[in-house]
């Protein structure tokens, strides 16, 4: 059955008059009659029978009408449903967050206060290109200039207990801590790779003694003199622990780039562009307000 045949059949079934049905369909009566007959031949059953100047449905016709009417109603609703999908999709921003997830969440919460109609869907997939906005990180010398992208440099410090040999230190060379046990934030593979590269440049492989996906747990472990750990300048927030301090790493240069970029995936990407602008400004402001190592 063709869609046009179905429409012709349902119109004739409702009006029960071929001439009026043809007028409603803006076709000639012979064309309508021929279409109905072709449908009957395709199905192998009669759908109508004559009754004076009108037509009536056969039992086969009644059955077919009962089955087709809800299907046609659904088909007729599809264009409006698609328009609604486009509208909803336009209000949903798909993000691939591979770095600075805590700071990104803060930005989203702040943005939602003034844009309640905007929704967010977050994923963490380094292989996916299906996103509106991505936040990722690379070593400072690996970053590449991409279209529609923003890059923010971030220094990496060493978080150490505020006691013993680190009590009066303001900076450190990384090779000095080659024998120390490192406490690492689990679940941040790109950041872990970057920190491992820092250690390799300093001539050693870090000895990981504790991993956690909870930043507070990492801070508490360092404060308890259980080990040391890398700490980004501003994207993880301040240490806020009187027993932990941050040391500047003098050698090698320990810095990464946070890269935020967006794709024009939608017919109307204005919501994506607006949030991208907000997010980049949020990162800039947080960097300006970032903690100073000397205060820790």
From TrEMBL:
<protein>
    <submittedName>
        <fullName>LysR family transcriptional regulator</fullName>
    </submittedName>
</protein>
<dbReference type="InterPro" id="IPR036390">
    <property type="entry name" value="WH_DNA-bd_sf"/>
</dbReference>
<keyword id="KW-0804">Transcription</keyword>
<dbReference type="InterPro" id="IPR005119">
    <property type="entry name" value="LysR_subst-bd"/>
</dbReference>
<comment type="similarity">
    <text>Belongs to the LysR transcriptional regulatory family.</text>
</comment>
<dbReference type="Pfam" id="PF00126">
    <property type="entry name" value="HTH_1"/>
</dbReference>
<dbReference type="InterPro" id="IPR000847">
    <property type="entry name" value="LysR_HTH_N"/>
</dbReference>
<dbReference type="GO" id="GO:0003700">
    <property type="term" value="F:DNA-binding transcription factor activity"/>
</dbReference>
<dbReference type="GO" id="GO:0003677">
    <property type="term" value="F:DNA binding"/>
</dbReference>
<feature type="domain" description="HTH lysR-type">
    <location>
        <begin position="1"/>
        <end position="58"/>
    </location>
</feature>
<dbReference type="InterPro" id="IPR036388">
    <property type="entry name" value="WH-like_DNA-bd_sf"/>
</dbReference>
<dbReference type="GO" id="GO:0032993">
    <property type="term" value="C:protein-DNA complex"/>
</dbReference>
<keyword id="KW-0805">Transcription regulation</keyword>
<keyword id="KW-0238">DNA-binding</keyword>
<dbReference type="Pfam" id="PF03466">
    <property type="entry name" value="LysR_substrate"/>
</dbReference>
